Amino acid sequence: MATSEVSICNMALGWVGTRSIASLTENSPEARACSQFYGPAREQTLRDHAWNFAQTRITMAALTVPTTYPEYSYAYAWPSGCLRALKVLNSSGVEEDFEVVLAANGASRMILTNADVAVLVYTSNVTDPGVFDPLYVRALARRIAADIGKTFFKNNAQAQQELETYYINEIRKAQTQDAGEGKPEDVAESTWVTARFA
């Protein structure tokens, strides 16, 4: 069966131990929970690991460097659809230090670095389930299960914690297997995941 939002949600619902759904818009507690949590869970799962399938590159658009950051020579616009900045490469392909800050308008982010021409390697906000990696599908379903578990297991903290632990284990598995696919990216783990592993 082709991967779809509904099939991913049904995997999550199976792990929670409740009924499956035919649509995210049907009138049921399960569908309402999945509809509420699917989007945020998809984005969080993309951020929690540097998934190979979701990585892309872009030459960033230059901005004016804020005077409050004199240690940086260049500023660049945060790309549309970027969920997590992974690394900045200069014109020679060498990795540069960078910092993500709030832009002066307070409504967007910018990337500060000392690279005169900056290529950003980042996690893209992939929405099409048809291109999801199988490891990502399992991790996303585990994230949804953990999130909706808070609704279905309101008085069962142990069940909620178990669902959260299953998600963390899926991310660990992905970190091991994804690193062996293609050229490994030496990217720091999400601080959320690192804190959970400590």
Describe the model.
The chain has helices at residues 5-16, 29-47, 134-152, 157-178, 191-197, and strands at residues 55-59, 62-63, 74-77, 82-89, 95-96, 98-102, 109-113, 119-124. It has five helices and eight strands; from the N terminus they run H-H-E-E-E-E-E-E-E-E-H-H-H. The longest helix is centred in the C-terminal third of the chain and has 22 residues, at 157-178. The two termini are 37 Å apart. The chain folds into two domains: 5-51 and 133-197, no CATH class; 55-124, no CATH class. The strands form two sheets. It has a four-stranded antiparallel sheet with strand order 1-8-4-5, with helices on one face. It has a four-stranded antiparallel sheet with strand order 2-3-7-6, with no helix packed on it. By secondary structure, the chain is an alpha+beta fold. The radius of gyration is 19 Å and the shape is elongated.
